[in-house]
Amino acid sequence: MKRGVPLFKMLRRKQLTKKENQLETTKDAHGFPIEIFLDVQKNIENIQKILNTPSDLVTREFTVGNTKQRCAIVCIDGLVDQTTINDKIIRNIQLGMANSGKEIPASGEELLKEFENHVLSAIEVKKLNTLDQVMQSVLSGDTALFVQGTDQVLLIGSKGWASRGVNEPSTEALVRGPRDGFTENLRTNTAHIRRHIRDPNLRFENFSVGRRSKKDLVLTYIDGIVHPDLVGEVKRRIKTIDLDDAPESGFIEQWLEDSFLSPFPTLSPTERPDKVCAALTQGKVGLLLDGTPFALVAPITFGNLLQSPEDYYERWWVGTFLRFLRYFGAFLAVFLPGLYIALVSYHPGMIPSKLAFSIAAAREGVPFPAVIEALVMITVLELLREAGIRLPKPIGQTIGIVGGLVIGEAAVSAGIVSPVMVIVVALTAISSFSVPSYSLAITFRILVYGMMFLAAGFGLFGLILGYIMINIHLVNLKSFGIPYSTPFAPSFYADWKDLILRAPIMMIGKRPIMMQVDDEKRMRKGGKS
Amino acid sequence: MKSFEYGDEEIGSREILYAVSSMVIGVGIFGLPRTVGSVTKGSDGWVSILLGGVLALFFAWLVAKLASRFPRQTFLQYTTTLVSKPVAIFLTILLAFHLMQFTAYEMRTVANISKVYLFDRTPVEVIALLFLLVVTYGVACSSVGLFRLNLLFLPIVLLIAILLLIMNIGYFEPGNLKPVFSTKWTGYFQGARETLFAFLGFEILLVYIAMTNQPEKTPKAVMIGMSIPLLLYLFVFIIVVGVFGHTAMIQLTDPTIEIAKEVEVPGEFFERFESLFFTIWIMTIFNTSALAFDASVLAFRSVFPKIKRVWLIFFLAPIIYLFGMMPPNLIRVYEVGNWLGFSGFIFAILMPTILFGIAKLRGIKGNA
Amino acid sequence: MPKTLWKYSLLILVVFLGGCWDRVEIEERGFVVGAAVDFPKEGDEGNEMEEDAANKPHGKHRYLLTLQLVVPGSMSQGAKTGGGAGSGGDAYYNISSVGDTMFQTDRQLANRVSRSPFFPHMKILIISEEVARSGHLPDIMDFFLRDSEMRRGVKVMISKGEAREVLGVKPVNEKLPAMYIDSVTENERSSSATLPDPLRIGDLNEKLLTRESFIIPRIKSAGKEVKIGGVAVFEGEENKMVEWLGGEEVMGLAILKGTLKGGAININVGDNLVSYETKGDIKRKIKADISDKENMKFIFTIESEGIITESMETIDYLNDPAKWVLVQNRVADEMKRMAEKTIRKLQKEMKLDVIGLSTYLAQNYPELWKSVGKDWDHGENYFSKATLHVKARVIVRNPGTVNQTEPLQED
């Protein structure tokens, strides 16, 4: 890690020191007592004080059976499943205890044990004894059960809130392939992965991120395939995360990535469980954040971003053809406007005579040089894309028509832009849509501008220098220790079978060598390589 | 993070192979048919190229053998054990200057040729500056990054070269190859000397083998790496003679670019193939310059380990620029090229031979 | 971080400050598609500029350079309005100026047009006979070869009469005369024997550099069309044009050089004509007897394969092998006749070797060539003293799709 990274390291060092301070300060950030009292009433008051008696806080005090043993349950309305609390907690305590005929223990301690072992019929029950842990559990949808006379608190899993159903991922639609996508619900998401990989070695490790939000972040990998150091490094980086809130996995991505100066993504976000599972079997790790359907996959290389799951679902001829197409598309998406400018403004000699004459004829009367023309058109295109996302769906279509047809046609007939330019811009847009990774596509959209400036300044010479610079950047960029340009350079020829080509499934018998996996073979025979 | 070995600052023998090829293939190929053709007759130049190439191959092997005798030792370290420390420092600094001059020459040539084939009014100074800036950016990133760039660029460059040769087959007149073997034997040797200059550049191995993790495999990798330019030169020469004929060939400034001019792309997809060819060729020239620059930085750093790499690069880049822009015209640039060939001869051939002799005689081996 | 930023910003700064020296938009270029070189006459533009500088260096000659520039707007107008009205006028204009050097003239022209001339799309270069005969061809060619804008694929032709008139023809189906001429030369279908192979300027460069004599195709303008046929023969020492070779001699030459690709060869069978066409290249072999420098002997063996394209004489080809052989022999004799006619003209009248024997000798007998090379077709002129024999062999592959078009007349 030579370049770009030292800066990152510097930053990380800062974070580490900050983190150490933070551990002490958050505990009693607001000056409330943090220990749990033996008295139920006092505890409830304490909680109400901490939360400032919000309207969604539900507290219910009651006595068990005919004893004077006071209990209370605390939960947040909306985060909990009411029926769970009714059927599994309150009913069991009040009826179950009374009907069991057993003697009700007098001490709070034992009563609690009795509840835990015999009374509560919920699956998820845990005992906690600090208030901040209790608070966090309650705030994430559990129900707390306080019992008079003990400083132990039972927390019963009762999460249940309204969430979106499983839908087809909208950003990564495929013609062929599973239609289910991740949702905002972490459990649903982990379930997706479990359902795909029923390997006992599949690991889920929980982290909590966000100083305020305390979101669940799950690191998943397959033990025995993944390189252990990779997991170690990911964990180390996760521990440095110091955020108030992580509303989306994008925050995690930006915190974990190797170089924040790079326009290229070094973690790949995806909505597709099959994509994450495929990555796990290749020895990569996945990151799932609660509250977002976008999981993260790391490490990734440039080649990975141009792959789509469909390459594997279709037969290999098709897959290979699509790959080639996509590499070509990626090239066009970055270089086409630049090439057009270079050829038209600097090297018209390279255009075949007849085409040159017709381009010249088309540009006749256009008041701007090709650069300005291209800049304007590309920017308009970006505006259209942005507007298309922003607008409500029914109007979004209108924008497409107004922008694409009306403005385009009007601009051409008004002689502000040449028809050839419109074709070039449209081609660029189409090409950038052919890139399967949305984050890479955005990167390309930025690079296009750079290439246009270089081409405008120095024609083909500028373009080739731009190409070289992009390559310099790519070979020096790393994603969790893996050079971004692997397996092109450093080259692992065995991995090329699944790079631009997509060799027949039977022949990809080994997991990518570049991942240095523990278990190399993907098939019993391990292929012919 | 150290989990992925190949992500570290080490290179394997494959990287060395590509680096040698990329280093040698540079601007030398443009004028080679002319320089060799002017001292030989008919198509006899290929004998010279073969002769020069085999000689270069041998000396490259010698350099690799010498450097891999001292695994993981820098040039300075092993020359210190062979000759005394002051001499070693002197040699290292001279080598570093030679490599800087190499970068400067490549930069100037690329600017000159760009000026002819791509530009008209843009000043050479600006073209050179731009090129050098990109080279500096590449070098400032990391050495191992440059090796990876070789892996990426060399196949593209060879592909365009092969494309060029294939497309010229239509213009190839076998008659132009005749007469054969009518050159005097001195001519062959003169030609071989000219070729040898075009093969120089492998002296970077003196510096780089310290970085490789498989020193015992390097000599073989170097041999393969050197044979790529050898084959390329042979084919280019034969095609150029076949297309232009000997008489016309020696009158063209850059015959290799001129055969690109000759080509008409099938389907008239685009014209002026030479612009495209040269544009892509810039990639290998970049590799050559960047490797030379990087090697000189490494050499300097071995003498002055306290100076930070980045500062050294920023300090050296302007000097390289001045070196490169000093010659006022084409003839002086060629003169510089000749001098560079001469100093390359010393560093790639004379010095390694002597050092290798000393090492052999005194039986010195690294690590032992 | 600051370091990296500094580096990037410097780079971007350079791009912005430095760029755009060479940027000329495509519609601001004056695409030159054809050029013609003549000697100036009274009243030509630029000729009067003579007096203003008495001391400036003068060339041996002044030239009249005519460039044909494209008017792209009118090119596409036809397409846009569906070929209506045609009010757009011509898609080209020719512009001439007189100057001492080509380059100077080119720049003078740039003063008079709104779009400065741009040469990479140039297709043809026409030199007038007058200029060709003056021996200044290499001087003119220098500009068209040296400038890096120039393509090596430009076709060179010698015009009978004024060169700029050729650029002024008004072709019926093409918009640009130069493109029209270019496609005529490319026209392989009509690649008749009298249509000489187009000469690319790059090849001309090679010819100029050697002392070899060479030929350049001839072009004539005739109102709405041009006629390309015949060649101008140049002697290699001074690169001066010497003589024209007509249609049949060009064919003979093509036979001798082995470059014949097609073209009708008519023969008499009975009292009617049969027409034969070579398919594919003909094969030519040279055998040399060089024992006597003063009287070298060369035997040209020519082999041609082809088909019957027209048979006015009714012959039952399929059932009459004797007639088939007869036809083959007659064609061979005809080819031999044409070749020998050409040899006679070249060897005895012009005493110039454009057959390629000099190259043949230089390549195969370098030792001998050293002694005769300088006096090959001038001075001693060993060429004219040599004896050239032609042997021809013809194979008719098939008689076409019909055997006979009318019944055989019973004798």
From TrEMBL, chain A:
InterPro entries: Spore_Ger (IPR004995), UPF0353/GerABKA_families (IPR050768). It comes from the Bacteria. The chain crosses the membrane at residues 324-346, 366-384, 405-434, 446-470. Belongs to the GerABKA family. Signal peptide: none annotated. Keywords: Membrane, Transmembrane, Transmembrane helix. This is Spore germination protein.
UniProtKB/TrEMBL annotation, chain C:
Keywords: Germination, Lipoprotein, Membrane, Palmitate, Signal. It is a lipid-anchor. Residues 230-400 form the Spore germination GerAC-like C-terminal domain. It is found in: Membrane. It holds the Pfam family Spore_GerAC_N. Residues 22-220 form the Spore germination protein N-terminal domain. It comes from the Bacteria. The keyword DNA-binding does not apply. Signal peptide: none annotated. Its main location: membrane. InterPro entries: GerAC_N, Spore_GerAC-like, Spore_GerAC-like_C, Spore_GerAC_C_sf. Belongs to the GerABKC lipoprotein family. PANTHER family: SPORE GERMINATION PROTEIN B3. This is Spore germination protein. It comes from Ammoniphilus resinae.
